[in-house]
User: Fold these one by one.
Assistant:
Number 1:
Amino acid sequence: MAVEDDHVLISLTGITKEFPGVKALENVSLDVRKGEVLALVGENGAGKSTLIKILSGLYHKDNGEIRVRGKSVEIQDARHAQELGISTIFQEPTLAPHLTAVENVYLGREIYHSYFGGTVKILNEKEMYQETEKLYRNFFSTVEDLKRPVIELGALKNRVIEIAKALSVKASVVIMDEPTAALAEHEREVLFDFIRALKEQGVSVIYVSHHLKELFLLADRFHVMRDGKHIATVSADETDIDQLVSMMVGREISNFIAKETVPIGEESLRVIGLNQPGVLKNINFHIKKGEIVGIAGLAGSGRTETVRAVVGADRISSGAVEVDGKPFRIQSPRDAIRAGIGLLPENRKLHGALIEMSVSNNITLASIKRVLSKKFVLKKKAELDIASDYVQRLGIKTPTVHQKVRFLSGGNQQKVILAKWLFTKPKVLIFDEPTIGIDVGAKVEVYNLMAEFVRGGGGILMVSSDLPELMGLSDRIYVMHKGEFVHEFSRDEATEENIMYYASGGHQ
Amino acid sequence: MITNPKITIHSKKTANSKNPFLILLTREGVGVSLILILMFLFLAVSAPNFLTVGNLSNLLVQSLFVMLVAFGTMFVLSTGGIDLSVGSVLGLAGGVTGWLMMNGLNMWIAILAGLFVGALIGAINGLIITKLGVSAFLVTFAMLYIARGVLYLLTKDEPIRNFVTPEFAFLAQGKVLGIPMPVLITLVIFLLLYFIFKSTSYGRLIIAAGSNTEAARLSGVSTDRIKISVYALSGLLAAVAGILLTSRLTSVQPSMGSEYELEAIAAAVIGGTSLFGGKASVVGVAIGALILGLVSNGLDLLSVNQFYRLIITGLIIITAVAIERYLAAKS
C-alpha cells in the first residue's frame, strides 16, 4: 500500500473465515485510515457482516492477520475489541429502553463514589452526567435530553446515544451497520453531520450500508466485497453508483430500473374518502390495471397508515373501497383478501412473514382454503407442490420448502411473502418499502416480479422512501404530507426536487 | 425468469441440522420419550410391584385427568396464551354435572351441561382476552377464583354425593374388552386432537397465530376467533376431565381440581410446548403427563414421602426445558 503506516489505524491481511459448508471470507484485506469514512459495500452474503463481527470480537478469524496501530493482535471478544479502540453500532438498537442516555452510555462501566475502603459504593451520577455532557459538547455541539428514558427520544437521538456510548470508551474506529435504517430523511442529514464531526476529530468510521446514494455524501473510500472476497477499494471521487453496482454484482446491471410499458386498463382499485382521526385526512386515489402507482412522503406522513387502512389492518372512521367497480366492506385483512387486495408490509420479519414457520406454510397461509379437502383437512402433498412451484417461478433460494423463513436472506423472504400474496390471486398488490434492506441483485428480481404482475393485468400501489426506485417504477406518484394526499404527479412530471417540495410541505 | 435448479423439494432434511442423532432427538416427542423410557426401566428394576397389570393400569388412569387438561393447556400455550382457570373449571364442571344429577336430571343432560359450562367459561376467557386486550394471565387467574367460588356456592361447603348411577360410574370405572373406559375415552380424544393439530387448517392457523399474531392477522387469519376457540377448547377438555374424575370419585369435593392448572402446564412444558407460542406437540404432552404420573406412582412404590414429588417434578421441568433449549441452540 502506498499509504504511510502511521495513517493506518487497522489493517487486515488475508482474513479467512469458514463456516460449515460456506467460505464466508476468503483472503480479505482491508485498511482503515485515521479520520476517514470507509464504506463497506456488497450484496447480502458478500461477507460484510462476518467481517465486522470479526472486528468487533464476536467471531474469530480462521486465518490472516489483524494489526491495530501497527501491532499484530488476536481479538478475543467484544470487550477486547473495545479496549483496542474498536466499537460497533449494530443495526438493531442495543440501548436499554427505560434507562436515560447517561445511564446507557455508562451501562456496565458505572462510576462510583467509594466509601469505607470500597465496601460501599454509590453511583456517582454527577460525574457520569458531566462526562456525557462533555462528550456531547465535543462531538455534537448540542446537549439535550440526557436525563430522559431513551424510549421517549426517537430513532435519531437513540443513534446518537449509541455513538456517544462508543466514543465514551475512547473508540478510534466506530463501525456502523445501516445506521440510518430507522431514520427519516432530515434526520439522516443530522446524523451525517455528526459523523462528519467524528471525522474531524480523527475518529474513523466503517460504514456498512446498502444505500449507495447516501454513502456518496459521506464516504471517502469504498471497499467492495462479493462472495466473501475483496473485489476493489476505490476512492469516492473516482467512482459512481453504476460502477459500484457492477462490482458488487459482478455483472453490468444495465437499466438498474427498467420501466416496462404495459397497456393500462380499466380501473382496478378506488379508495374514497378514507379518514382516520388524527392520522389520515380524506384520502382519495385509484389504480388502474397494469399501473404501478407510487406514494411518496416523509417518514410519519401517513404512507404506511394509508396502506394499512386500505387492507383493514387498522380501523378507519370513514371511507369506502371499490375493486373493479364493486364496493367492498373491508374491516380486516381477511376482507381485503376476499376483495383481491394484498399488502406486503414494510417490516418483513415482524409483519410480513412468519419467520419461525416453513416456506411452504408461509406461501399457503393467506389462502389456506385452497389446500383443503372436506373444508378443513390439509392436502399436504398439494401444498408442497404449490410451494415448490412458487419457489421455482420466483427463484426463491432455499434448500427446501421445509426451511424456516428465518434462515432466508431478506430478498428471499420478500419473495416468499410475494408468493403468499400471488397465491391469493390478487387484483391489487400493495408494497410498503418493497426493497428495504435487500441487496442489489435481489432488488432487480423483485422489480421484475412486480413488472410481471402488472403485465398480467394486476395493479400495484407502492410506498417507497427510495425516490429513484419510486420514480423509476411508478406510472403516477401521489405525494403525502401530514396525513393528506397533497399532489399527484405523472411519471414525466416527477423529479426528486418537486416531490420533496410537496412532501416537505413547500406548497403551503 | 429466474430458475433455481438445485432445489431438492421434498426432502425433509433442513440444511442447518446435520448430525443424524440430533435430528432424531429434535423429532417430535423423542427427547421426552427417552426420559419416560429411562424412568420406566428404573422403576421396573427397583420397584418390585411396578410391572403388574394392576399397577400399570392404575398409573395410566391416574395420569389421564391431568393429560386431558394438559391437551387444552397445550392448545392455549401454542397460541402464546395461558389458561390458569382450568383447575377450577374442572371442579365446577364436575360439580355442575353432579349437582344436576343429584337434583334428578338425566345423566346425559347433566354431562352436556357440565361440558357446556367448561366451554362457556373458556369462551368468556377468550373473549375478554381478545376483545378487551387484557393479559391472558390476569383474565384466567381471575377466572380461577370466580369458578372456584361458584363451586363453593354450589356445594355449600359440603361435598356433592349420593347422585351416582351405575351408568355414570361406568364412565370412569367400567371396562370394555378389559380396557378401562377413561383410557378409551382419552385415546379417542388424543387421536382426534392429534389429527386436528397436525392435519387441519385449524391446527395450522393456531400455530400461525401463536408464532406471530400480527403477521398472521395481516395474512387474513382471524386470530381473535382462533384464540377464543382455543380457550373454549381448553375449558371443554377441563370439563371432560372434571366429569370423568367425578365419576371416578363418586363425589365432588369443593376443592376438586385445585392445582391441576399447574400440573397441566408442567405436562405441556415437559412435552416440549413453548410458553411463547408457535410450538407444541400433542404426543409430547401425553408423554409429559405420563411422566408426572410415573413420578408419583414410583415414589409410592418405593415408599418415599410424596413431598419429594414436587421437588422431582420441578427438576424434571427444568431438565426438559434445558434439553430443549440446548437442542434448539444446536440446530
Number 2:
Amino acid sequence: MVPTRRRALLAAIAGVGLATPALAQGRYPSRPVQLIVPWGAGGGTDATARIIGSLLERDLGQPVNVVNRTGGSGVVGHSAIATAPPDGHTIGMLTVEIAMMHWQGLTELKPSSYTPVALLNQDPPGVQVAQNAPYADIRALAEAIKSRPAGTFRASGTGQGGIWHLALVGWLQAMGLRGDHVRWVPSNGAAPAMQELAAGGIEIVTCSVPEARAMLDAGRARSLAIMAPERNPQFAQVPTLNETLGINYSTGAWRGIAGPRNMPAPVVTRLGEALKRAYDSNEYKEFMASRGFGTVWRDAEGFGSFMAESDRSMGEAMRAAGLARG
Amino acid sequence: MEAILQAFALVFDPFVLGVILASAVFGLFVGAMPGLTATMATALLVPVTFFMPPVPALAAIVTATAMAIFAGDIPGAMLRMPGTPASAAYADESYAMTRRGQLNLNMGVNLVFSVAGGLIGVAVLVLCAPLLAEVAINFSSYEYFWLACLGLTCAVFLSNADPVKGVLSLLIGLLLATVGIDPSAGVPRFTFGEVELMQGVNFVATMIGMFAISELLRNAVTVRSAGGAVVEQVGDVFRGLGPVWRRYWFNFLRGSGIGTLIGALPGAGADIAAWISYAVSKRFSREKEKFGTGHVEGVVDATAANNSALAGAWIPALVFGIPGDSITAIVIGVLYMKGMNPGPTVFLENPQFIYAVFLVFILANLLLLPLGWAAIKGARQVLRTPRELLLPVILLFCIVGSFAMTNSLYGVSLMLAMGLFGWFLEEHGIPVAPLILGLVLGEMLEQTFVQNMIKADGDWLAFFSRPIAGTLGVATLVTWALMVVRAVVGVRAPKLQVT
C-alpha cells in the first residue's frame, strides 16, 4: 500500500518535472511574469511599474508581479534584471541610472547588457527656488549665480553624480561656468531636497517639475524653467531654458522596460505589443497625466538606440563634470 | 458642514465599509507576521487601489496600517519577535511581562493604548494639521542631525545592564549602517565586490534575526522542558487595565504627544517614535530599575506612540506632499492618482474627501478594539502548539519575512547571520536593541552630517546657526555632559567610601 502510493507520488512528481519544460516551449508567457523595479515602493518608478504591471497582466493573461529590488543607487535591481534567465518571465524597468552608473565605476552593467523592449516615459529637470527667493525669473537667477563667487549657491535633488546633479552641471557649463560653481548637496531624492529648499537650507533644486509639484502647489517653491526642448503641457507656465536664456541644453530621466540580454525575438515582440496597448490605454494616459509625468513611446529598436545615445551623452557630461572614473 | 455630511455618506457606504473590514483583517495578518511591515502592507494595496474610487482606496491603506502597527505587538509579546519594526523598542519588555505571567495585561495594555494613542494622533491631525506642518517644514539637515543625535542618546536608556555595553552595541549598529553605497559620495563601502551588499545591511532582516532567531536558538536547547508557562494565561485581556490607566495616564498622553510629533517630522515614523518615547519613559520614571524586567510603564508610552505616529505622518503628507514616514510616501502617490493633490488647497478643493479620511481614521481605530481582541484570542491558540512544532514554523515565517525585505536570499542569509551574532551578543550581556537603533539612525546621522558640512563649507558653528537647530544642539550637548558627569561621579562615589 505504502510503496504503491509512494511510487504514484514519484510518478506524479516526475510527470510535473517533465511537463514544465514542454509547457515553457509553448506559448509565452506560460507562468507568472516578474517585473523588477530597482527603486523603492512609493516612488515614481514604482508607481509607473505598478500601473504598467496591472495593464500587462490583463493583456498577457498571466499574473505580473512587481518586485522591488532596491538599494545600491539602483545597482542591485538593474543587476537582478540583467542576470535573470532570458525567457521573458523576468523583465524589469530600467531607469536613466543604467546609462550613468558604469561611468562612475559602480557596476559593469550598461544599456547593452539588456534586451530593450520599450521606452515609456521621460521627464526633464526643472529649476526650482523657494517662494520667497529674490529672483523673478530664470534670467535673474542666472545673473545672480554668474556674479557671485563659486560656492555661494547650493543645490540639491538627488545623490552625488545622480541625474539631477548632472542636469545642474550641464546647465552651468552651458552658461560658461564651472560645473561646481554651484555647490551640490547630496540628498536621498527629490522629496527631501524640496523639504530642504522650503526649510531654507539650500537655494536651488534641479529635480523634475512633477517631483516638485506638491511644494509648488503649496506655494512654498517656484519653478523657473525646465531643461527640455519644449514646455510640458501639464506645467505650461514654466518656460524652457532655450526661450529664456537662449541655452539649448536639455536632458532628462527616463524609464523603459527591458529584459536580460539574448531574450528570444518572439517574446520581445509579444511583450512589445502588450506594452504598446498598455501605453495607448486611457488608464496609463490618465495616470501619467495625474502625476504630471511625461509619456514617450519608443519600440524595442528605438529604445535600444535611445539608450545608446543616452549612454554616450551621459558619459560625456559626467567626464566633463569630473564625475566619471577610470 | 455640508462637506462633513458628504464625508459621512462617502464612508458609510456598504462597499467602503466592506473594504475597511477586509483591509483590517489583511492589516492584522501582515502586522502579526514578522518581517511583513505596515509599509509593505501599503505597497501591496496600491495595485488594488488603482481600480477604486478615492475614499475606499485611502480607507484601505489607513485601516490596514493602523491594524498592522498594533498587530506587530502580538508576536513581540508572545514570542519576542516584533511583527513590525515599530514594536521592536519594547518587544523585550513585553516578552519579559509574558514570562512573568502577565501576557493578558500586556496584550490588554497594547490593544487599548494603541487604540487610544491612535485616536489622539487623529485628533491632532484633524485639529492642527496645518499648524504642525508649518513647524515640520522648517526642519533642515541641521535640525535632523541633532534629532539623530538625540535619538542615539536613547540607546543608553534601552540597555538595562551596563551603559557601556549599550554604547558598544550602538556603535556596532552604526558600523553596520556604513555598509553599502555611502549616501553622500556614492562610493561602495565594505561590499567586497558583492552586488547584494551594495544595498547595505537591511535593518528589518537584522531585527528579525537578532530578536527571533537568537530566541529560537535559546529555546531549541530547552525545547522539551520549557513552554507550559505561557499557555496557562488565558483570560480577560481587559482585566486590570483600570489601575494602569489611573497610574500611567500621563505616560499615555506623553507617549501619544511624542508619537504624533515624531510622526509629523518627515523621515521619522512609528518605529523611531516608539524608541524615543520608550527612552523618555524610562528617563523620567520613578522606577527606572524595573524597566526591562517586565514593567508595563514603558509599554504604555511606546505602544501609544507608534499608533499616534501613524496619523501624525499624514500631517506633512496632506499639507505639503512631504512624506512623514515610508507609508505616507506611498500614500502621496495614491493621492495624486486619485486627483487629491496634496497641498494646503486639498482642504479647500476636496474637503469631503479629507473629512472622509479623518472619519476612516477614527473608525479604523475603533474597529481595532474588537478585531484586535479577536486577533489576540486567535494568536493565543498558536501558543498551545507543541514547541517542537511551533519553533520550526516560526523559523519559516522569519525566512519568509526576511526574503520579502530584499526579495532575494540575501535577506535570509543576513537574517540568519544576524541571529547567530545576536545570540552571541546576548550571551555576553550585550543588549541588541541599541544595535538596531544604530542601524536605523546611522544613515540619517551620516548623511545630515555630511550635508551640513558641505552646506556650511566646514564651519562647525553652522550646526547652531538656526533657532531650532541651536536649541536641539544645546539640549543634546547638555544631556551628554550630564551623562558623562553622572558616570564619573557614579564611579568615584564608591571609591570615596572605601577610602
